[in-house]
Design a protein that fits this description.
By secondary structure, chain B is an alpha/beta fold. Chain B has 11 helices and 6 strands. Chain B folds into 2 domains: 65 residues; 202 residues, Rossmann fold. The chains are: A alpha/beta (277), B alpha/beta (287), C mainly alpha (209). The interface between A and C is large, with 74 and 55 residues.
């Protein structure tokens, strides 16, 4: 049975609802999503109920440098500045806030001051809560300063100007740029350089990565930001999720390689199967 | 070891001198243009030909995703496209989800439209800014008039305008031209309207920073046209016969690139010279 | 309760949005458009007010405790009040010529000026930090130089091959790398989103998880 016949069979079985292109696309997407989620949930179960040792994570220099940067700031008696970028609530921002929890815990433990520069008021509110909770958990509730977690501007370059001002006035010793940055990335990073701060950047906008590689001491590449919370916390569940993510990536790579091979020999079977909807 | 060689002095040079040199190299061609010929890319030619292939009266959504910060690159681009769309006698709907986008379109394009003889409400309309691109574009798939509360940027009724005749939902739009400096941008319209089949033809006009990723979509056929950065704007200006700011700016961009190249070369030569001198000093000290 | 309710809400809203994006189920499509999407607009509008209040509160504290450079806080509060008044109370609101004058001649130009800093910072970064220390960085330097020269008329005037090599580097080498990069990023983002959706990732709700 070829793919055209398979499609006709599916339509006759599943009725007119599937005749709609949008619904077929939705079902195909849901299928891929279901497969992906199943792998994640399998590893979730293994991580929470199993006793097997965790997969080893390769060393990521940028994340190892976070503790070094906080230590440096503590020794110098100057603040650490956290900057989650300008994309509001998105996947990179959630990953950045997870890292913020770790950083806030460390700065509370070592009595270093933690500043925050925010472009989105919603993200700022969540960050205030995260940092305050971290300080309370470390028994340093009185050290928490609400004014250190500040909303600067919703405008991209108003925000960049505000960051430059904070960096230079407060004379920060370390800057953590985790999140999604646009054109203001280089401006903020270079201001940190001029102030002599050690800088660790982790962001997902591939257009800004070259600038941050040039301007920062450590730069996380590509989706290393998404593994940051697992890497720093060594939490069994989160590391298990990373393993699931890598399995899914391997499956996709296999499909791509098979597709390339089949297409090279003139067969469209793989591409037809992928666009069966 | 002698730390006062020319290379050590260059390595420690004040950044302000670098900035001043760059400023001079960029400013001089702006004041006295050199006028070097442009290389016209196939993708720019193909994009203009694609626009010309639509019949008169076709409806185009001109996504004015611009801000003051990217005005240097996108103002010449949107201006050139506005002229070209009027020349093709297409109906232009200006929308945008950057805060300043539609406002800047009004400031920049209204004089152009007046010059080209286009009439507001008949040949073009400016819908104005709305927050939350996702929800508005989603609603436009069903009802554009309702999505914008039947009001344009100045509060006039959209449903009474001839330019909106027969345009009730996104699928009534023939093609889309999107200025794309980031998000919201072309990717927003691709997921909202292209992936769902509302608008098949999207012409991407990214800034030079976004051009590298925009090429992916163009190669894959997701977008049907690509005109990128100041270079692209200059090519459009040349092709449509209305030279403007983009063509004048290309010389300055060229000298700016050369300045940065010079800094790269001098910086690396200095780095290797200092490294060589340090190595020789260590060998002398050791030997 | 403090963590459970947000998790339930975000899971429910997430599933509804996924179903709305991909399926034509009228009841879900209408609910998503009429309530969920509009709630985003409402929350964004409220957040803008919240951010402004936070900013003003911070600067009032600067003024009251006379911290260093507190005079600039007067300027910020004054400008904020001025533009807010113009935008809300003048006839035509933000279309009013008075508002437009200050917007076009101050805000627009200031934003462009700050953005232009990027080019100067790029120049100093290139001079200070871009070193051919290894084979990879040398390849990066050479290809960056060729792309820079090839993308301007001056490069084509020097040698007609520069634009061709630049085009090849961008279309063949760069596009394929960006494609792989984007697929990796999307998978990472998808994984992060699934973790947020099902409540595995709770860092944004409370630290120390």
């Amino acid at each position: 049975m070829n793919t055209a016949e398979l499609r006709v069979t599916m339509e006759s079985l599943l009725g007119s609802w599937l005749k709609n292109d949008s619904n077929r696309l939705g079902l195909a997407t849901l299928l891929y999503f279901g497969v992906f989620s199943t792998v994640i949930l399998v590893y979730w179960r293994k991580a929470t109920h199993g006793t097997d040792p965790l997969p080893k994570l390769r060393r990521i220099a940028g994340l190892d440098a976070v503790d070094e940067a906080i230590g440096r700031a503590t020794e110098m008696g100057r603040p650490v500045c956290f900057n989650p970028g300008t994309s509001g609530f998105s996947a990179p921002t959630f990953a950045a806030l997870a890292v913020l929890g770790y950083i806030a815990g460390q700065t509370a433990r070592y009595d270093a001051r933690l500043l925050g520069c925010y472009n989105s008021p919603q993200v700022m509110s969540v960050a205030q809560s995260i940092v305050q909770t971290a300080y309370i958990e470390q028994g340093k509730a009185e050290s928490f300063r609400l004014d250190d977690i500040r909303y600067l501007s919703g405008d991209q370059f108003g925000f960049a100007s505000g960051c430059i001002g904070v960096i230079q006035r407060e004379r920060i010793a370390a800057q953590m740029m985790f999140g999604n940055f646009a054109a203001e990335a280089l401006i903020i990073a270079e201001a940190g350089n001029v102030a002599g701060a050690i800088q660790v950047a982790g962001q997902t906008n591939n257009l800004q990565t070259p600038f941050l590689v040039a301007a920062c001491d450590y730069c996380l590449m590509n989706e290393e930001l998404y593994v940051a919370s697992a890497y720093l916390s060594k939490d069994r569940l989160r590391v298990g999720m990373l393993a699931a993510q890598d399995i899914c990536r391997l499956v996709l790579m296999t499909i791509m390689v098979l597709g390339i091979i089949f297409e090279s020999f003139g067969s469209k079977i793989v591409s037809d199967l992928m666009t069966l909807y | 070891m002698n730390n006062s060689t020319i290379w050590h002095r260059l390595a420690a040079i004040d950044s302000r001198i670098l900035y001043l040199a760059l400023l001079v190299m960029v400013a001089v061609p702006l004041l006295r243009p050199i006028g070097l010929p442009l290389v016209i890319l196939d993708e720019v030619r193909d994009t203009l030909a694609l626009i010309a292939s639509f019949p008169e009266g076709s409806v185009v959504w001109l996504a004015s995703e611009v801000a003051a910060t990217n005005a240097a690159e996108l103002r010449p681009m949107i201006t050139a496209f506005a002229r070209y769309l009027v020349m093709q006698n297409h109906r232009i709907i200006i929308g945008g989800f950057w805060t300043d986008g539609c406002n800047l379109a009004r400031i920049w394009l209204d004089p152009i439209f007046e010059e080209m003889g286009a009439v507001y409400g008949v040949n073009y309309v400016n819908l104005g800014y709305r927050p939350s691109s996702t929800s508005v574009l989603d609603e436009c798939r069903k009802d554009i008039i309702n999505a914008y509360s039947d009001r344009d940027i100045a509060g006039r009724k959209l449903s009474e305008m001839p330019v909106m005749a027969g345009v009730t939902k996104a699928s009534d739009i023939d093609y889309l031209v999107c200025m794309s400096p980031g998000t919201p941008g072309t990717s927003t319209y691709i997921s909202a309207w292209r992936a769902t089949g509302e608008v098949d033809v999207i012409i991407d006009c990214p800034t030079s920073g976004m051009y590298t990723t925009a090429g992916n979509n163009y190669q894959a056929g997701i977008t049907k046209g690509l005109v990128g950065g100041l270079n692209g704007s200059a090519q459009v200006e040349q092709l449509i016969g209305y030279p403007g700011k983009a063509i004048r700016g290309m010389d300055a961009q060229g000298t700016g690139h050369f300045a940065i190249l010079l800094y790269l070369i001098i910086g690396n030569i200095g780095y290797y010279q200092i490294r060589r001198m340090d190595r020789e000093a260590k060998e002398h000290a050791g030997g | 309760m403090r963590r459970t309710v947000p998790l339930i809400l975000s899971f429910t809203a997430g599933i509804l949005m996924i179903l709305d994006s991909y399926f034509k189920i009228p009841i879900i499509n209408n609910f998503a458009t009429d309530y969920l999407m509009r709630s985003i607009s409402v929350s964004v509008a409220w957040a803008a007010g919240l951010g402004s209040l936070n900013l003003i509160r911070l600067h009032i504290r600067h003024i009251s405790s006379k911290r260093q450079n507190y005079q600039f806080s007067y300027v910020l509060i004054g400008v904020w009040l001025f533009m807010l008044t113009c935008g809300i109370f003048l006839q035509g609101n933000t279309a009013n010529p008075f508002y437009q004058f200050f917007y076009s001649n101050i805000q627009v130009n200031l934003s462009a000026a700050v953005y232009s800093l990027a080019s100067f910072y790029l120049a100093s970064s290139c001079y200070r930090a871009f070193r051919a220390r290894s084979v990879e960085s040398t390849v990066l330097l050479v290809s960056a130089a060729i792309v820079m020269i090839g993308s301007v008329p001056v490069g084509a005037a020097i040698w007609s091959g520069f634009p061709a090599i630049q085009g090849w580097l961008l279309k063949i080498v760069n596009d394929s790398v960006i494609r792989g990069w984007s697929i990796g990023l999307t998978l990472g983002g998808l994984s992060q989103s699934v973790r947020n959706l099902v409540g595995i990732e709770r860092g944004h709700l409370q630290a120390g998880e």
